Amino acid sequence: MLVPFDPGPRDPRTDTLLGEFPSAEFDDRFFRCCELVDRYSLDHALDLARALRLEPALTGGATVAEVADRLAVPAAFEPALAWLLERLAAGGELEVEAVDPPRFRSRGPLRAGETAELRALGEALDPGIARTLDLFDAAAAAWPAVASGRSTGEQELFSMGRIGLWIAYFHNANRAYAISNRMAAVAAANRLRPGGGLRILEIGAGAGSAAEALLDELARRGRLADLELYLATEPSPFFRRRAERDLKARFAGAPLRFAGADVDLPLDEQGIGDGFDLVLGVNVLHVARDLVGAVSRLRSVLAPGGWLVAGECLRLFSGQPVPAELVFQLFKSFHEVETDPRLRPLHGFLEPRHWREILAAAGFDEVAVLPDLDRIREHYPRFFAGVAVGRAPRAPEPATPGSHR
Ligand SMILES: C[S@@+](CC[C@H](N)C(=O)[O-])C[C@H]1O[C@@H](n2cnc3c(N)ncnc32)[C@H](O)[C@@H]1O
């Protein structure tokens, strides 16, 4: 390889900051996989720069808006273009002048990406990594059509022929993704009250990988019999049926129920009920249009003292590009959210501090983002997963007319 893949050793100081999460989950192999996925996104970004003819558009230095103008991309593509420029700058491939708005400029001719070589290394590290790399390849192949306005990310990546890619990606055999499920499962199991009659609601359950992780964790702790209800909700009938088929086969006898639910809409009108001990969502809440409203609605279906546990992909610094955005920046749902300068300044993945603010604004107590990413980022700046937790107030609140429910 022209630029060897050499992430160096994992910083062991992160191990002491993982809190309730077992450090065995974050071993050297996992660290190398995460770094490889990060580098893979950079090398795709380099090839996309060439495909989109980015270099001539950067002549003399240019802002995102100027580059967008010179390339004549549709307005809806500008956030994706911004990610591309930030990704290249974060990888040291472009210079960025920290003015407002930032100006990007070439350091010299951009090198060619080395994705084939990286894939070979990645698959030798962990064959499961192919599930992430395949989705990245499909997304990268879709960029030129979306940049030209000939197509949309949804048309390119949500057709029936692409479903297999998504099922493979949102899967517990895909360690780079599954870490979000695993952390959410541990955080959720640690917060469930003792005793039986437990009622759990999951939102955006997809094809069921987060449910599988939690049910596995409960089985490990001998707590499956404490469940009265596990209501897995998912708006896409295709994913929901898939989750229902697989989870009922794996956890026969568990009180599993399946329904459609949209976090952007009132939950009672969707027949969801209330009195839940836990609401779980993994990588779903960041697409809620009005995040404080959605989180408030979830609080209102919790029993007093019940917990919201949201596993989320996170950025640790403002404006930090996240590798998975190579895929998600192509989607309208990723961008079309309400922003707020304090609570949610940008679309897409949030920073830990924004989750804390949002959960507090939605009336949660004991708000935290786990593990301690504010300290972890000092030793490892690309720890892109975490869990936001908050507890519903213990005493029932008096009903207020016009509340978010
Ligand atoms: C990233 S996937 C995560 C799937 C699942 N949690 C897992 O980890 O396997 C996000 C899921 O959220 C669902 N979703 C998108 N918008 C939603 C909304 N407004 N309300 C509820 N779910 C939504 C999608 O259909 C998708 O299945």
What does this structure look like?
- The protein contains 16 helices and nine strands.
- The protein has a domain at 176-391: 3-Layer(aba) Sandwich (Rossmann fold), CATH 3.40.50.
- A seven-stranded mixed sheet has the order 5-4-3-6-7-9-8, with helices on both faces. The protein has a two-stranded antiparallel ribbon with strand order 1-2.
- It is α/β, with parallel strands linked by helices.
- Bound molecules: S-adenosylmethionine (SAM).
- Residues 170, 181, 203-207, 209-210, 234-236, 239, 262-264, 282-284, 287-288 line the site of S-adenosylmethionine.
In short:
By secondary structure, the protein is an alpha/beta fold.
Please specify the SSE layout and strand pairing.
Layout: H1 28-51, H2 54-57, H3 64-71, H4 78-90, E1 94-97, E2 103-106, H5 115-125, H6 130-147, H7 153-157, H8 163-169, H9 175-191, E3 198-203, H10 209-220, E4 227-233, H11 237-250, E5 256-259, E6 276-282, H12 291-300, E7 302-313, H13 325-328, H14 332-335, H15 352-361, E8 365-370, H16 373-379, E9 385-391
Parallel strand pairs: 3-4, 3-6, 4-5, 6-7
Antiparallel strand pairs: 1-2, 7-9, 8-9
Helix pairs in contact: 1-4, 1-5, 1-6, 3-4, 6-8, 9-10
The protein binds S-adenosylmethionine.
